[in-house]
Amino acid sequence: MTAISFLARVAVTGTVAGLGLGSSADQVRDALGDQCVADRRKKSLRLDYGLLEFSLFAGFCEGIAIQVHRLTGRPEQVIPDALRPFLSGLSRTVSFEALRSEIERDGSYFLEELQGQSGYRCYRVARSHVVLFVVDEFASEGELLAPGDLWSIMISGRS
Fold this sequence. Notes:
Elements: H1 3-13, H2 25-32, E1 37-41, E2 44-48, E3 52-57, E4 60-66, H3 75-78, H4 96-104, E5 111-117, E6 120-125, E7 130-135, E8 150-156
Helix pairs in contact: 1-4
């Protein structure tokens, strides 16, 4: 499985490493381990695994962010061990067009463009809770991301 096909599967299934909306904190830790930054605020918990962030409320996942832009730094430090077999050979940037082609390849899924946010174009996998954020503006000098690069994939019951 290529990195693009892995990310496309995440986008169309709304799951990563067998985890999705409603997964418990214990399920997240069982799948990905304890090597994460945990940020607790009252009933909310954020588990940050570098490339992946899980937002939990009252112990259950209500959002997952795949922070693709973090690959521009040191990919080997942000990819959880459990995902390394699926993301080997992943470059520091991910082409949105390559990902879109993979998502829409067999005609079962398509992306609908949403209203963009400052500096980003947004696309939802139709009839899902998955939104892709794509860089739409040239970054400052020295930035590795360019227009057309994937910024992140967000899975949320609120999308």
